[in-house]
Amino acid sequence: MSARDDVLIVGGGVIGLASGIALLQAGRSVRVLEAGTAGCGSSHGNCGTITPSHAAPLTAPGTVAKALRWMLMPDAPFRVSPRVDPALWRWMLGFAGHCNRTDWLRAMHARSTILEASRDTFPAWLETLGIDCEFEASGVDYVYRDRADFDGFEDEATQLRALGVAVERIDGPDYLRQEPALREGVVGAIRFPGDARLRPDRYVAGLAQAFRALGGQLVEHCEVHSIEETGDGVRAATSAGAFAGRDLLLATGAWSPLLAKSLRLRVPVQPGKGYSITYSRPAIAPRRPMVLHERSVCVTVWDSGFRLGSTMEFSGYDRSLNRVRLDALERSAREYLIEPVGPVREEEWYGWRPVSVDDVPILGRAPGHRHLWLATGHGMLGVSMSVATGHLMSDLICGRAPRFDPAPYAPARFA
């Protein structure tokens, strides 16, 4: 067994690394245990948008009915693969129970708080750590080709404005004059000028470098088999031996429920599989990131490339690269963009996002445990929420007054 650390963190994605950096900055010794390589999961291939605009959770009224209509559509943007999986169906029943306006508004407020805290801190965080990841305060546009959908967003826009999120409505002809990358047929756009973007693979690589530079120990190719809480700390049995810490933070994203079983701990998270395709930059590229609303496809442009991504598929831990889902990304982009793909296809990717049963992150001390902490359930917003999550977990583990109210995220809400 290695020497005992102040904090062991299981999971080397953006949440684990951001939490590790914040703990190092607070004077703690930290070791991160990562089954693969740093950032190899959903931290790598997402669209890299920093989005206070995405405060509204998936648990909206009507989501269940929509999901049922999409069950037999293999390329639907939100899809549950029909199969016998008791854990999934228990989770779906819980998810359905949250699909009401009261819970939707409550979750929106909780998500907005942590999203805004991260967005406000991102520029200074990147500068302090010396991370160059093509961050730009670009804003993000939702683009519509359906008038009813465009007009129907007004209720959500009203709620977002009440939370302090800037929202601009742009009619189709005006927007097409501003954005020459789009085809005719756009009826309007919703702009969120406070959003931003970065290149996520470079961000997570920068986090890993900064973590090591601050004195953190990053153990890659180290699969954790089980976790045991002792009287004065925690032990982790891994493929690279045993490690001990005073506290342990479980930040393994969609894998968190599986590891939590060794502690008889229920973590109500399901893996939501997403896809992306990365290209070299096309000649006619959008000026800012955009969401092709009717198709739920995100388009992100960096100086170094171009990415189509999104979709949410509940198919367990299926490791196949679904060609139908990838083709749907390109097909959707062709409906909206003059140049829907770049000249060189550089990478096809899938990854699992950790979707909690109420679509609010699960952050805090694990119920019934003194030394075990959870940081998971960020859904599609792990990068967006990473800085504020790291600071909050550091505050809680170190016993400091938290920077914002941690109660909405507490794991105890499911006990």
Architecture overview:
The protein has helices at residues 14-25, 42-45, 63-70, 86-97, 101-129, 147-152, 154-162, 172-178, 200-213, 256-260, 323-336, 382-398; strands at 5-10, 30-33, 49-50, 78-80, 140-144, 168-171, 188-192, 196-197, 217-219, 224-229, 234-238, 241-250, 269-279, 290-292, 297-302, 305-314, 345-356, 362-365, 372-376. It is an alpha/beta fold and 415 residues long. The chain has one domain: FAD/NAD(P)-binding domain, CATH 3.50.50. Strands 4, 5, 6, 7, 13, 14, 15, 16 and 17 form a nine-stranded mixed sheet that branches. Strands 1, 2, 9, 10, 11, 12, 18 and 19 form an eight-stranded mixed sheet that branches. Helix 1 packs parallel to helix 12. The protein is globular. The model has no long low-confidence stretch (mean pLDDT 93).
List descriptors.
415 residues; alpha/beta; 8-stranded mixed beta sheet; globular
Distance between the termini: 33 Å
Estimate the helix proportion, in percent: 25-40%
Uncertain segments are none
Helix tally equals 12
What's the β-strand tally? 19
Q: DSSP strand (E) fraction?
A: 25-35%
Radius of gyration from CA coordinates: 21 Å
**CATH C-level class:** Alpha Beta
Main beta-sheet annotation? 9 strands, mixed
CATH superfamily: FAD/NAD(P)-binding domain
Q: What is the number of domains?
A: 1
- Quickly give the CATH architecture: 3-Layer(bba) Sandwich
Helix/strand-derived class?
alpha/beta
Instruction: Name the average pLDDT.
Output: 93
Question: What would the CATH topology be?
Answer: FAD/NAD(P)-binding domain
**Which term fits the overall shape?**
globular
